[in-house]
Amino acid sequence: MVSDMRRSSILLSVLMATSAAACGGASAHEGDTQAGAPAARDFLLTESALDFDETLARLKTAVVAGGFKIIAVVDHAAAAQGAGLPLRPTTLVIFGNPAGGTPLMQANQQAGFDLPLKALVYETEAGVVVIARANIRAVLARRAIPGEAERAAKIEDALSSIAAAAGAPAT
Questions:
Q1: What element of type H or E holds 78?
Q2: ∠117-49-54 over CA atoms, to 5°?
Q3: 34: number of Cβ within 10 Å
Q4: What is the pTM of this model?
């Protein structure tokens, strides 16, 4: 009999492998223009100039200021600690705006798998704080939603502004 912990670990591995395969396993920093880099990246990464707690607080503020509603906040590090496992600071913020997401799901209900939007704030082993977020253009391509370039551009602009606001030092 497989323990619940082992079952969760197996499921997570399968989901990660499936997600990576769906998008060529690609992830990159914003603005990555490396020769040969895939045109559509699954995730966009923004390094924060701030510490983890400040980045997370500013991300939440920027999400709300951007017209989105925070649906849930998942503190993976706290959950890991509760299971007796170490994990550097890692928090997922789930947020959305039905006016923006619903038309995508009307075009293809499977977009509901990718929505609502998410941003993951985590601290690397080197102490760098990173904001990871889905590349909405890759989401639309994966779900074969035609004619949504303008909507994707608006959502991507909003997500880029949120990530920049969360990780930029105060001036």
A1: helix 76-82
A2: 65
A3: 8
A4: 0.75
